[in-house]
TrEMBL record:
Record keywords, A-Z: ATP-binding, Glutathione biosynthesis, Ligase, Nucleotide-binding
Region annotation Disordered: where it falls in the sequence: 418-447
Gene Ontology CC: glutamate-cysteine ligase complex
Enzyme class: ligase
Protein name: Glutamate--cysteine ligase
One record GO biological process: glutathione biosynthetic process
Length: 581
């Protein structure tokens, strides 16, 4: 299993390095990234899939016989007896254990770096109890209630009690290099309404702890798995020992836009550290960015090593990154590292991992192309944050890509002009400051977003268009029509876009729907929502044959899949690029 990050930037490559690898939370996981940033030319879209394929082969070559690497979002029997090899048994009563889970043994946490077990222990201890993840069971004919292992308050839910159930999932993430801070803020805001859309479109995780659930995505599982808020912070008890009532887990959707155009859509109460906010404003940081940082810092550190306590904050950003990197949100705004040529970046984080390199590359290229179109056509996707939050919950429901409707901007082709109220709250009154401190104030601009700017649409309508709404793929094709694209790259991109369009329309299944279908049609399935070991094995065996190209799967991928992906861009383009550098 691997989590891929596509990095798009203009930096010079590191010669000879095609892949980079890092350990991840699960002892069975690894994170892979390209060895160098993908370039900014359209021809570079044709190397993404080839690089993913290379990385898969590189890992596979290191594995012993009968072990395989697979890009799946969630192992269906994670937390079941004997789900690890060698087998490990949970020890919930052992105070020395990090998770103390009833289902997830510490042996399943990567042992080579102290960060992962430290996070697990600290989140549990800060919360004052084990995390509690509860997903509704898929209601089949013979489903038993209460569900085995459930808690009394949620008898019809699959219960999980450890960080590993969330951080043991895999995903597909992208990081974009922006030209400057303004462009980074624009991309951060404009991609935010796309997060729930892409989460539903890439849905790939309907099974947890050996049960089929009534959800298709991992997001709420991870959110609950690292929810370190105390009872006071969750609003279950009056504030006495803690400073803030915090409305979301530290792993969740974003709470505010950063660009002036987005300010009027910041319609949810934003809890922030008032002292830090004032300090940032005094340092000439504008209101929108100051409140963003002050909101991140309402969280405590959950992993800090002794050698990192004393730092020169004028030269090192470790203290900032300690908090920034443990606010796991749908989007991440990444300032330049000190003493580095790296600039302002934006990370897009919602997508689930797909079975094949073709699918994962299609998602990467679609999102990257969308950023090009957003900037070139000055598209406007902004809707109120509250509507994005609503979309995030709906996007995780079973079959959401076909059955749910999502709030989306009606007219996306006219972005508001720059010059919103970047300093709008600079002169907030004392009462407003007190309200912010208590999380009851709304720091949005005084002009609210008109309700008739957005409406409910299906994902098919958003992606493929309807009436006067052009659709995102047609806009991408319009953009590509004005560009000079080599034949192979054009062929590859069109296959990727067709996959996206057909997933949106329902002509092709999402990975979650395909997994669900495989489980319920298996001979061992008893219509009780339970996934047996044999059922799980046959599912993964078939998934491996599909990812290796041994088995065709037209219901998931379509017919005649033959992208022209290659390891390198055409020599003539490479030569021209070298001359320019």
């Amino acid at each position: 299993m691997f989590r891929d990050r596509d990095i798009v930037s203009c930096f010079l490559p590191i010669p000879g390095v095609k892949s980079l690898w890092r350990p991840e939370y699960g002892a069975y996981m690894i994170e892979g990234t390209p060895g160098k940033p993908y370039g900014g030319l359209l021809a570079h879209f044709n190397v993404v899939e080839a690089n993913m394929r290379y990385r898969r082969m590189e890992v596979a070559a290191l594995l012993p016989e009968n072990e395989f690497v697979m890009s799946i979002t969630s192992f269906p029997r994670l937390g079941c007896p004997r789900f690890t090899f060698p087998p490990a048994v949970p020890t919930p009563d052992d105070e020395a254990c990090a998770a103390r889970s009833n289902f997830f043994p510490d042996e399943a946490i990567f042992p080579g770096h102290p960060r992962f077990k430290t996070l697990t222990r600290n989140i549990r201890q800060r919360r004052g109890e084990k995390v509690s993840i509860n997903l509704p069971i898929y209601p089949d004919r013979d489903t038993k209630t209460p569900v085995a292992g459930s808690i009394p308050s949620h008898p019809s839910h699959v219960h999980m009690d450890a960080m590993g159930f969330g951080m043991g999932c895999c995903c597909l993430q992208l990081t974009f290099q922006a030209c400057n801070i303004s462009e980074a803020r624009t991309l951060y805001d404009q991609l935010t309404p796309m997060c729930p859309i892409m989460l539903a479109l890439t849905a790939a995780s309907p099974a947890y702890r050996g049960f089929l659930t009534d959800v298709d995505c991992r997001w709420n599982v991870i959110s609950a798995s690292v929810d370190c808020r105390t009872r006071e912070e969750r609003g279950e008890e009056p504030l006495k020992n803690d400073r803030f009532r915090i409305y979301k887990s530290r792993y969740d959707s974003i709470d505010s836009y950063l660009s002036p155009a987005g300010e009027k859509y910041n319609d949810v109460p934003l809890v922030l550290d008032e002292t830090l906010y004032k300090r940032l404003r005094e340092g000439d940081i504008d209101h929108l960015l100051a409140q963003h940082i002050a909101h991140l810092f309402i969280r405590d550190s959950v992993s800090l090593f002794s050698e990192k306590v004393h730092q020169n904050d004028r030269e090192d950003t470790d203290h900032f990154e300690n908090i920034q990197s443990t606010n796991w949100q749908t989007m991440r705004f990444k300032p330049p590292p000190p003493n580095s040529p790296i600039g302002w970046r934006v990370e897009f984080r919602p997508c689930e991992a797909q079975l094949t390199d073709f699918e994962n590359a299609a998602i990467v290229c679609f999102v990257v192309l969308l950023t090009r179109v957003i900037l070139s056509y000055q598209l406007d996707f902004l809707i109120p944050i509250s509507k994005v939050d609503e979309n995030m919950q709906n996007s995780q429901k079973r079959g959401a890509v076909l059955t749910e409707r999502f709030w989306f901007k009606k007219n996306i082709t006219a972005i508001p002009p720059e010059g919103g109220r970047a300093d709008g709250a600079a002169n907030a009154s004392a009462s407003q400051a007190e309200q912010r401190q208590n999380g009851t104030a709304d720091d949005a601009a005084t002009s609210e977003a008109p309700a008739d700017e957005y409406e409910l649409m299906t994902i098919d309508q958003i992606i493929n268009g309807k009436g006067t709404f052009p659709g995102l793929v047609p806009l991408i094709n319009s953009y590509l029509g004005s560009m000079d694209v080599d034949a192979d790259t054009h062929c590859t991109i069109q296959q990727y876009l067709k996959l996206i369009q057909k997933r949106a329309s329902g002509e092709l299944m999402t990975t979650a729907s395909w997994i669900r279908q495989q489980v319920v049609s298996h001979p061992e399935y008893k219509h009780d929502s339970v996934i047996s070991e044999g059922n799980c094995y046959d599912l993964l065996r078939k998934a491996k044959d599909i990812q290796d190209g041994v088995l065709a799967c037209p219901e998931l991928l379509g017919n005649n899949i033959n992208s022209k992906t290659t390891d390198n861009i055409p020599a003539a383009i490479e030569k021209h690029l070298t001359k320019r550098c």
